[in-house]
């Protein structure tokens, strides 16, 4: 077997063994079902109602949770081996350093994608069984798109975690950087954009730039993939405010997510090749 | 035939620090060679260069006929036991060897055989997290033997092993030697290592102090043999006077035995005379040890006043 696949299979199995994958599957299923069931509680009723509203809430929640999980499962992938003293042993085997990073990246991405598919897939299956929405085919397409984009979003942050793991010398520093990465991409980036929007006071030229600024953050790209396809009123306020007069090509958005997934990972591979062991 | 390891003016620098400087050495097939030196002497750097994990800053190194730097396929022919081996605690011993055998493209049927060979068959399906340090070390030896490597590098292999496990380890090392493999053992435990090695590479502050068979190194050092004599009581003072006159006596031990340092050149003549001497009841000859040779070469850690190279 190719060494990359050997390492990936081991990491994938480890994530199952450490209960990461199972815990995530349950978490995703519970979140999806909870949002679907209680999403309209404020309006005085519970039960499965609008699938669009459910997916909009899931997207908002996924944009918070999935990057954090991607970072958490992979931040110690290389620095952890260094701390535990297994890195030298692994590198004494016939595999290139890049292959070790690639195997770990693929294994963790696979585990996260499996948990996303199983968790959200299970939730939608239960929703359909309890109270099938009228246009179930459309719902399955939307949830399929959500699962695919969520897996890509997870890969973006697994890649970032691999980069952090290669560039740091101890696990605690890597964990700190991972949390900073999460905070910047999930919270601070949007806040900064919002501040810019307020300060610019609706300057037409600057307003034209905002839709492109959003593409610099994979979390916003993930939101755009899912929210811009939903019915009116289901979108998020910041996004609808900024992108009201802009339409994005879905292909471009998926391509961007892919680039965001591969760029930090490729950087991690190159950096690890040059690292003094 | 090429030597498994050949170094020519090999150097490795980390910024201003010369970790290895101008190493010229050859390690032959079918021998067990001790890699000796204090902490910071350059042993780990040499091992990393042999494994191709770092590039030389100068000179050349060839391992099994090729440059090891980034030669990934070459590592299939090398086995390595790192110092204080730690492994994935959540895997079982068998799972770890299965995983590493896949990476090395070694036959998976070897896994069971190797676990039996290092005495871990009974714990093969237990998690490594439950292993004692000695068991982990034996697992480390098993993984180093995956794929029947031509060159085996053992870094402090007996750390944490009890005396019986240490004997077992050196028995396996002996089998590797008999099989024509080359084994390089890095260790601080000179007395333990001495009976099991054919030769030594001795490093100090990145330089090669000495290299060769133990016999040749002993000849080169020409260290005196130590002789312990038990004298016959009535004739004791006369014997001591004679030995002092010959410049052989170094001290009288608390148990009453006399300690002599006999130069290599006159050893046989002196021993014959002592055996024929009626004042001698018993004698015991001790050849210079590896530790004495090591001290003689000045291979110990540098003193604080010394300026590093």
TrEMBL record, chain A:
Give start-end of the signal peptide.
Answer: none
Show the Pfam families listed in the entry.
ABC2_membrane_2
Task: Spell out where the chain crosses the membrane.
Answer: 20-43, 55-75, 105-126, 146-166, 178-199, 252-272
Task: Give the molecular function GO annotations.
Answer: ABC-type transporter activity
Q: Which GO terms describe its cellular component?
A: plasma membrane
Which controlled-vocabulary keywords does the entry list?
Membrane, Transmembrane, Transmembrane helix
| Name assigned to this protein | Multi-copper enzyme maturation ABC transporter permease
Species annotation: Rhodanobacter fulvus Jip2
TrEMBL record, chain B:
UniProt keyword terms in alphabetical order: ATP-binding, Nucleotide-binding, Transport
Q: Which GO terms describe its molecular function?
A: ATP binding; ATP hydrolysis activity
Which residue intervals define the domain ABC transporter in the entry? 5-230
Organismal lineage: Bacteria, Pseudomonadati, Pseudomonadota, Gammaproteobacteria, Lysobacterales
Enumerate the Pfam families for this protein.
ABC_tran
Q: Which SUPFAM superfamilies match?
A: P-loop containing nucleoside triphosphate hydrolases
Q: Species name for this entry?
A: Rhodanobacter fulvus Jip2
Q: Does the keyword Endoplasmic reticulum apply?
A: no
PROSITE patterns recorded for this chain?
ABC_TRANSPORTER_1, ABC_TRANSPORTER_2
Q: From the Swiss-Prot or TrEMBL record, give the protein name.
A: ABC transporter-like protein
